[in-house]
Amino acid sequence: MFVKIKSIEILPDFKIKALYDCGVVKTYDFNALIQNHKAFKPLGQKNLFNQAKVDCGGYGICWTDDIDIDSGEIWYNGATELKTDEDIFNYIKAVIQESEPENIIKAIQEVAKIKGYNNLAEKMGVGRESLYKSLSGSTKPRFETIYKILLALGLRLSIKPAEA
């Protein structure tokens, strides 16, 4: 799956909020790119930075013919906005459609942080330390753990034929 940007909002301090076609919102901070990468230095000028637009097809954001950024960079390295249960559903669904297990675990970890490990562990009937350890990245969580997390988030797994 390749995520596409539907629209953007330019924020103060060289940040951009991107709405993806799947309903997920990511905020990306461009400060490190502007300071550390020669190609992005011109974006340090507010008047140029503020000219950002979604490129044709939603595959990234562009400023000039020479300065652009891929939608995947913002997707994988931007901060995810998860304010509602619908936001969480859209995010988990989009990540699961990617079919990359590591990214699914990272997304579930991100949601667990936002929802609170204590709250989620209580709904699952496990200890907070156990849940935290399962999602820490030092080991791969068991399917049973992932399944219980999804249930605690009010989500259910379903199966459909893979697309060709």
The dominant shape is elongated
The number of helical segments is: 8
Structural class: alpha+beta
Question: Would you list the SSEs in sequence order as H and E?
Answer: EEEHHEEEHEHHHHH
Q: How large a portion of the residues is in β-strands, by DSSP E?
A: 15-25%
Biggest sheet architecture: 4 strands, antiparallel
Q: Indicate the mean pLDDT.
A: 91
**Helix fraction?**
40-55%
pLDDT under 50 segments (min length 5)? none
Order the strands across the largest sheet as they lie in space: 1-2-3-7
Radius of gyration: 18 Å
- N/C terminus separation: 12 Å
Tally of extended strands? 7
- Quaternary state reads single chain
Write the SSE topology.
Layout: E1 5-11, E2 15-20, E3 25-29, H1 31-36, H2 46-49, E4 53-54, E5 60-62, E6 68-70, H3 71-77, E7 79-81, H4 85-98, H5 101-115, H6 117-124, H7 128-135, H8 143-152
Antiparallel strand pairs: 1-2, 2-3, 3-7, 4-5, 5-6
